[in-house]
Amino acid sequence: MKCRNVYTRNAVIRGLALAKSGEEALRWFLIMERENVKPDEVTLLAVLCACAYSGMVEQGREIFSSLMSGKYGFPLGAKHYACMVDLLVRCGHLEDALSMIKEMPVEPTKSVWGALLASCRLHGNRELSEFAAWKLVALAPRNSAYYVVLANLYGDMGRWNDAEKIRTLMKERGLLKDLGSSSVELEDQKDLLELLR
User: Between 135 and 186, whose confidence is greater?
Assistant: First the structure.
């Protein structure tokens, strides 16, 4: 790589994160630090995502702790907390994630509550799922998807009266369930163009 700066390193680390190559992303991050290339907020988001996607809880905790201590020279943002919550919940540390959310110095965002909700459902923690779903409803009361998730959750729990109350609440607020859609590609576009000529 000819041009080695924070931007090119961020691209490499983020790409490795998306490829679920967390150890390699972490290696690039450590090389970056060793070569005195100062990481920025994007770098830390990318490396925390890499840890989350690869299940590297302890490494993610260490990096987050360094970030909290001010090692990198900028304050933590809501996105850093969201990445750390995502890391914890993906690995089944639901209570740790909830504690972190409660101690956040910034207001938890929809992505934070959404990460908690998705993982709680995946790990079968229905009570915490309900709590997170209500937080999402409070943050985005016009988003029908959160009501649908909550109604479905109540249905899964056998709480049919509560599921019906949520559907009634949706009607009272004028919310509709989004209709699903799908598409099928019948032929290659090149062949389709020849057919239309």
Answer: 135
Residue closest to 64 by CA, chosen among 88, 92, 91, 37? 88
Residues 6+ apart with CB under 8 A from 22: 16, 50, 51, 53, 54, 55, 56, 59
Give, for 169, the enclosing helix (H) or strand (E). helix 160-172
Question: H helices within 35-93, ranges in order?
Answer: 41-54, 57-68, 78-90
Distance CA 169, CA 70 (A): 45
**Tens-digit pLDDT profile for residues 128-184:** 999 999 999 999 999 999 999 999 999 999 999 999 999 999 999 998 876 655 555
Q: Smallest Cα–Cα separation from 86: which of 58, 117, 65, 62?
A: 117
Q: Is 2 helix (H, G, I), strand (E, B) or coil?
A: coil
Name the token pair of 132. Answer: 């997170």
The HSE-up count of residue 194 (CA atoms within 13 Å, CB side) is 5
Render pLDDT for 66-125 as a digit per residue (tens, 0 to 9).
999 999 988 888 889 999 999 999 999 999 999 999 999 989 999 899 999 999 988 999
What is the DSSP secondary-structure string of 137-157?
A: HHH-TT-HHHHHHHHHHHHHT
Collect all residues with Cβ–Cβ distance below 8 Å to 104 and sequence separation of at least 6.
78, 81, 112
